[in-house]
Write a structure and sequence with these properties.
Layout lengths: L4 E7 L18 H8 L3 E3 L2 E3 L5 H9 L16 H7 L3 E6 L9 H7 L4 E4 L15 H9 L5 E6 L24 H4 L4 H27 L6 E7 L19 H4 L3 E5 L1 H6 L1 H10 L3 E3 L3 H10 L16 E2 L4 E2 L4 H16 L2 E4 L5 H9 L4 E9 L4 E7 L2 E6 H7 L7 E6 L7 H15 L5 E5 L5 H7 L4 E4 L8 H17 L4 E5 H7 L12 E7 L10 H5 L9 E7 L7
Parallel strand pairs: 1-6, 1-7, 3-9, 4-5, 4-6, 12-13, 12-21, 13-16, 16-17, 17-18, 18-19, 19-20, 20-21
Antiparallel strand pairs: 2-8, 7-8, 10-11, 13-14, 14-15
């Protein structure tokens, strides 16, 4: 037995998609972020739960059984058994009920520890916040026992989310506006907000636990979620209905004291090397056993490809999760067409996150200039606004290496054009997106040429024909021709129907200039052979100057 303390904190219904340490746009996990920045913690960036239900995942997390090693979970040894056999003191400290249809078996495993604490025997209407466990955790850390395994099971973000933290705990997460998650009923918006507060509450408790731990002792803390939660959607963690990213994406963090990091440097560095590869939480017991035995074979626990990582007891893989299936099809279209594909009308921060996970090259955002605020605000028109500035979107996307950003400026005119482009210059000085941008406007003013010469890509918006008449197509041709001759835009953007009709009459207006179009729904490419042939045989695809294609996709985060 070594003078080692291992603390395993099991989260509940916590998705990494709502943690700022993982790129979420609300400051829900400031301590976790700081711990990583200080080098105290390692975050697994691609961690997923083996299943979407606690009763399936927790036994796999603590036993020798896993999706990779079959066995009878009822008879399989656990890390509690292993540490006890080596002389370690073992603790099971839980804020979940001891008895219940979903917890009975987990409780049986927990009872094998030498010291057991459950905050309640059965499910109760009385709310017990996870902070009730702090005195028991401190007591276990300070006992004279030389080596220890301490398992802590939180209630975390289990529904009903508002019951998971005291009313006095109100972190400053920002104003609730449609631009966060899309247009939802107030009760749904409040539900998402309280979920975020519960995540922030857990972050503060992790900080309090680490403050209890002496830095001069050999202590490692592992925090991992049992499963995620699709709180913005309708299915929460019911993956039998649909495999959603947020149901399976989980936090997985390893924190070490100064002593542990210094005296286990090879272990620490080995974990650091695998943190950006795919891993599931049924590997937790393996990681703990390797830490205890000072074995550095962590490469055997991770995979490079999502398709190699099983979920739901091997019935599916991570690549079957919805956003990965979309990414597979988007990437297929990119390879076949050699074009850039952007997600259309990405006017909420949640939808921008969905676009990134789904393999898009970037996004198209609707923008309106607000003369009172002298700011570019996100929204399609005065009746459908996000409530957020473009700058907040740029800030939240700065960790995403997108290659195109299409800004559809809805109210660029002679009155606002100068102020709009001044604001674009200011934002570019901070976020450096000019070389990736497509600034779309239907205003054929002198600013088109002026700002094109200043390095901005200004795409002239060609109107979409409404009835397909020859007269209307001629008018569109004339408008494009006039814009090209008088204002010299960088490119032209249009509905694919515009090209079909206008190009037959005036093909020269579409030649020798970058083109950008929109037409296709992501649902059309859900089947591998549905849209590809239609898209590839379209005349527009033969245009070498075609650069970007917008895809529309219905999400739970639409504005």
């Amino acid at each position: 037995m070594k003078n080692l303390t291992v603390i395993l904190v099991i989260g509940e219904s916590a998705t990494s998609a709502h943690m700022s340490a993982y790129g979420y746009y609300r400051k829900t996990t400031p301590w976790m972020e700081q711990a990583v920045q200080r080098g105290e913690s390692i975050l697994f960036s691609r961690a997923f739960s083996a299943h979407s239900h606690t009763s399936f995942t927790v036994p796999l997390m603590i036993s020798t059984c896993s999706q990779y090693q079959a066995g009878d979970i009822a008879d399989a040894p656990t890390i509690v058994n292993l540490f006890s056999s080596k002389g370690y003191g073992t603790w099971w400290i839980s804020n979940q009920e001891r008895q219940g249809i979903f917890t009975n078996f987990i409780s049986v495993l927990g009872e094998e520890a030498q010291h057991v604490f459950f905050s309640g025997n059965t499910e109760s209407r009385q709310t017990r916040y996870d902070e009730v466990l702090l005195p028991k955790i401190e007591e276990s850390v300070k006992t004279a026992q030389q080596g220890k395994l301490i398992v802590v099971h939180f209630m975390g973000s289990h529904g009903r989310y508002a019951d998971r933290y005291p009313e006095t705990f109100q972190p400053q997460l920002g104003e609730l506006v449609p631009g966060l998650w899309g247009i939802h009923e107030k009760n749904k918006q409040d539900e998402i907000h309280t979920y975020d507060i519960s995540i922030a509450y857990t972050d503060t408790l992790l900080q309090k636990i680490t403050r209890i731990l002496p830095q001069d002792q050999n202590i490692v803390l592992i925090y991992v979620g049992d499963h995620g939660e699709d709180v913005v959607g309708s299915y929460y963690h019911d993956s039998a209905r649909q495999l959603r990213h947020d149901m399976f994406s989980i936090p997985f963090m390893i924190w070490g004291t100064q002593y542990f990091r210094k005296h286990n440097k090879e272990l620490w560095d080995s974990i650091e090397k695998i943190k950006d590869l795919y891993i599931t939480n049924d590997r937790v017991s393996d990681i703990i056993k390797m830490i205890e035995s000072e074995t550095c074979n962590f490469d055997s626990l991770v995979m490079k490809d999502a398709g190699d990582i099983p979920i739901r007891n091997g019935e599916y893989s991570v690549s079957d999760i919805t956003c990965y299936k979309v990414a597979e099809n988007v990437n297929r279209l990119k390879k076949l067409t050699k074009k850039h594909f952007l997600l259309h009308r990405t006017d909420t921060l949640e939808k921008a996150a969905i676009a990134q996970r789904s393999g898009f090259d970037g996004v198209e955002i609707d923008v309106v200039f607000d003369p009172k605020k002298n700011m570019l605000m996100v929204g399609h028109d005065s009746s459908v606004m996000s409530g957020l500035s473009l700058e907040i979107f740029l800030s939240s996307m700065k960790k995403w290496d997108y290659s195109r950003l299409w800004l559809d400026i809805k109210n660029c005119n002679s009155e606002y054009a100068g102020a709009i482009f001044s604001e674009l210059d200011r934002l570019n000085s901070v976020y450096n997106f000019k070389m990736k941008s497509i600034i779309e406007t239907g205003y054929p003013g002198v600013y088109i040429e002026k700002y094109k010469n200043n390095g901005w890509f200004i795409s002239y918006y060609a109107p979409t024909p409404r009835n397909g008449s020859t007269t209307e197509s001629k008018q569109i041709c004339q408008a494009i021709e006039t814009a090209r001759e008088q204002y010299i835009p960088s490119g032209i953007s249009f509905d694919i129907a515009t090209y079909e009709q206008a190009n037959a009459q005036c093909p020269k207006v579409f030649s020798k200039i970058p083109l950008n179009t929109w037409a296709i729904r992501v649902s059309d490419i859900a089947s591998k052979n549905s849209i590809t042939s239609t898209l590839l045989r379209h005349n527009l695809m033969a245009e070498p100057s075609l650069d970007c294609i917008l895809l529309s996709m219905e999400t739970d985060a639409n504005l």
